[in-house]
Amino acid sequence: MQIKDLLLILSVIALWGLNFIIMKIGMSYTTPFIFGFLRFLPFVFLLFFFKRPKIPLKMFIAYGFVLYFCQFALLLFGMNLGMPAGMASMVLQAQAFFTVFFATFLLGESFRIRSFIGLCVSASGLTLICLQADASITIIGLIFTLAASSCWAMGNILMKKLTGTDMKSLTVWTGVVPLLPFLIGSLVIDGPEAIVQTIHSADIIFVCAILYTSLIATIYGNTIWGGLMRKYNVSTVAPFSLLVPIFGLSAAAIILGEHLSYIDIIGAFIVMLGLCVNVFGGRIIQFLKQRSRKQTNSTK
């Protein structure tokens, strides 16, 4: 992976890590369905600045529904049903494993040994962090968050198939797909009064939370992420999401004053080690082979 692309994806991961804290703050103002509706509402105003991507309507709706409605509805409900923000940022990264699995069987991508080793190493780091985490996690919250991670993974596969389309246009236009499902859910479950009350009681913090999650986390983040998903092998890009919990936990420590234990730090180091194996393993193996050849030639 090129250094420029590496820096781009790290910027996205950092912003996504902070996004869990922002979502938790935004969710304190309203319900999951209303927050989801307001999160994607700004996309309507952006349609005038981007051409509609030339993709089949079925794929257009499937991508927007799976990635934006299903993923975020399940995630928001999971957080609302007892999944702490920091833990949600970790559990959601199961998408890296779902994505590699789906890519292998649905796209026919080769699954490299170094990717498998790197994923296993990173998984052990996340497991270490999870084992010593707060016991306040609920089973239903965990199930919803895992379901959200599988939707993200399927969205990655659909994104991989949508080659030749501008990622900004794709993100903006498919971002209006979840509006109707979120609105219907809000009206049926929460009622019109709850929507009106949320809008009337909104302050600058809530507005900033909505704008951050929609413009920065979704449009900027998904545009960069999708572009790199197309450019590189899925098994190279997807594991980077395993860094999200590290940024999320760090943001929680700085913004919310949450404590980072030594186990958290060790687990984070193991996750990064696994990513290094996945991203730089090929270069390391190539370097070692070249060095071995030079030593062999020098002894002749």
TrEMBL record:
Bilayer topology annotation: Multi-pass membrane protein
Transmembrane segments: 7-27, 33-50, 62-81, 87-108, 115-133, 139-158, 170-189, 204-225, 237-256, 262-285
UniProt cross-references to InterPro entries, sorted A to Z: AA-Vitamin_Transporters, EamA_dom, EmrE-like
Highest taxon, organism lineage: Bacteria
Compartments where found: Membrane
Domain EamA: 6-129, 140-279
GO cellular component assignments: membrane
Signal peptide: none
One Pfam assignment: EamA
Keyword annotations from UniProtKB, A to Z: Membrane, Transmembrane, Transmembrane helix
Coiled coil: none
The protein's name: EamA family transporter
